[in-house]
TrEMBL record:
The keyword Transmembrane helix applies. This is CubicO group peptidase (Beta-lactamase class C family). It comes from Actinophytocola oryzae. GO terms for cellular component: membrane. SUPFAM superfamilies: beta-lactamase/transpeptidase-like. Keywords: Membrane, Transmembrane, Transmembrane helix. InterPro entries: AmpC-like, Beta-lactam-related, Beta-lactam/transpept-like. Pfam families: Beta-lactamase. The chain crosses the membrane at residues 337-355, 376-393, 413-438. Residues 17-307 form the Beta-lactamase-related domain. The lineage of its organism: Bacteria, Bacillati, Actinomycetota, Actinomycetes, Pseudonocardiales. It is found in: Membrane. It comes from the Bacteria.
Amino acid sequence: MLGLVLAVVPPAPATVDEYLSSALDSTGLPGVSVVVTHGDHVVRAAGAGHDSLGHPVTADTPMRVASVSKSFTAAAVMTLVEADRLSLDDEVSSWLPYPRGVTVRHLLNQTSGIRDSSVDIGRLTSARTLAEYVSLLSPIEPAAAPGTSFSYSNVNYDVAARIVELASGEPFDEYVGSAVFGPLGMRHSEVGGWAADGYNSLFGQWFSRPELADGPRVNGSGAVVTTAADMGRWLIAQTGNGVFPESMLAPMHEPSEVDDYGMGWAPDDNGLLVHSGNLWTYNAVEAIDPRTGYGYAVMTNGAGMLDDTGDILAGLVALTRGETPETPGGSRQLTEWLLAAVTLAAAVLGVLGVVRSKRWAGRRRSADQRVRWVSVAVRLVPPLLPVLLFGFYPQVVSFVSSGRTVLWAQLFYFALPLTVALAVAAVAGLAILCARVVRLCFPR
């Protein structure tokens, strides 16, 4: 019984503030804003830290929420479904040049069969409108039959956003503003809106950078700018306490026939429905607990090797369950310090390798001063390995990212410490390789 009571008694606002302050210190993030809701009211919306303009982060600070935007796109589609202006079972090809058999439902469930590998992601970064984006998609080669497998891709939600434009007769940002933000009273939210430059971290040090422009400013996959206060209104609506009817919410929250992912929401191991978002200088996560009626959102204006928003969210959930939250953070800092050590070691070894190349070449020569090239070729492989790894770096990261395409420009944002470490190792390896070959071919 005690556990049940703790589950429904909201924490005091001061408790949330105290946790937020400690989370900012332990993660080292430049700025964080959070909101906790319960039923039809906001428990606490607050911020800590600062933005790149030197202003304190508050509950009203504009924050980019990246892929959390997908749940807003799904809501926009559902408002059109509720108005009988669109059907989830409409084929996309009835609205756009697209492979047959893919429905609007497939787009939102991420079961269209379209993966990043199905299109030229690099080409799409040049688009500046959703119409131009869709025109650049062709040709599309689905990786699976529609409705048979799950594959997360921004393409699905950007195409859905274009369908919203065609079905509503309005630009996507304007329609979301009037049909979603407006009814909820989210007066400080906008698709493609303004936010201060976010931050990237390099070896534990944050520095501000403009957000990477890699596609349309207004899109359906990751362009929402909002505030913690406005996210409170959104979460209240998502827990069934707002203007959205159950007939609209249920399809968004329910899993598809082939995966747990719904429409901008997916269950986690704690019984929550969640969606995270990782942009190049901002991170975010939202969650609702259908059992207790709690809602949570965490937004940060810094993006690094590791995302701390999930850990901060877990702490907020613990507070609402009457538990003591664990201290979030630390992993990002440790990872970046280790990469800094690797970078320094690679630079030192590179210098030593070049300095010792003459001695190395001398040892590779036989008594008659002829080079045993087969043996030498084998021994030249180690310094070549970091060069090859860096050359295929985007492909390697894309492979380990579950098939999501990652481009060179993006690797100089969130993955900057790893990129620098690999670049220094590659330069060191190339320098050693060249020095050794020169010493072998032109002995003195």
